[in-house]
Amino acid sequence: MKVYIVRHGEVSHNVLKMYGSRDEDLTELGVQQAEELRDKIKHLSFDKVISSPLLRATHTEYILTNYDDSIITDERLRERGCGTLSGIPLEATNREEYWNYYSKAQYGIYENIQDFFSRVFSFLDDLKKENYQRVLIVAHSGVSKAFSAYFEGIQDGKFLNRGLKNCEIKEYEM
After folding, report:
1. Residue 8 among the catalytic residues
2. How many structural domains comprise the chain?
3. Which domain, by its residues, includes 91?
4. pLDDT score at 150
5. CA pair distance 113, 109, nearest whole angstrom
6. Low-confidence residues of the chain, pLDDT below 70?
């Protein structure tokens, strides 16, 4: 099975370089990014398309699937919960530590990276049991980091630079 993961289009907290937990919609650029990706992948067909339930991901999926309104979501594809960091500039924390699988650093209250990865791994373990040829997943940068850990290994535990950019797509073989 080929699994394609896409990060949603741009949202305002991406522009402001802040942690964001609000369920926000795409910016104008985010919509444009999704439309450009739709045109880039129009030659691909998918047996199943699954999205994070957050608006930025479902809106991106809606565009990518040519406005198919039968969106399937899975709670396990939500972005890593940033808790009390929501609305705080990214530079207020050590991002290397925040995205280090082995780090013990704690900035406020947020979802532990090991718990977050386990949540995404559970989704992928269940997906393995299905008999699909091609699956499109629309989610978040953090979820793409967890995909990287699942398919490529945890290695040194550093995930800051292992996530996708807005409307970037990556293919994995399951």
Report:
1. yes
2. 1
3. 2-173
4. 98
5. 12
6. none
- Residue 63 DSSP SS3: helix
Under a CB-based contact definition with an 8 Å cutoff, are residues 33 and 169 in contact? no
Quick check: 84 and 127 in contact, CB under 8 A?
A: no
Selected catalytic residue, list 13, 59, 79, 140:
79
Give the model's pLDDT for residue 105: 84
Which residue in 8, 13, 59, 140 is the catalytic one?
8
d(CA 158, CA 149): 10
Strand-pair category, 2-7 with 169-173: antiparallel
As given in the structure block, the two tokens for residue 28 are 């104008």
DSSP class of residue 142 equals: H
Distance of CA 157 to the CA centre of its chain: 18
At 69 the pLDDT is: 80
Active site residue 79: yes
Question: Which whole-number Å values give the CA distances from 139 to 94, 105, 106, in the listed order?
Answer: 24, 26, 25
Give the Cα separation of 44 and 63 in Å (integer).
15
CATH label of the domain that carries residue 99:
3.40.50.1240
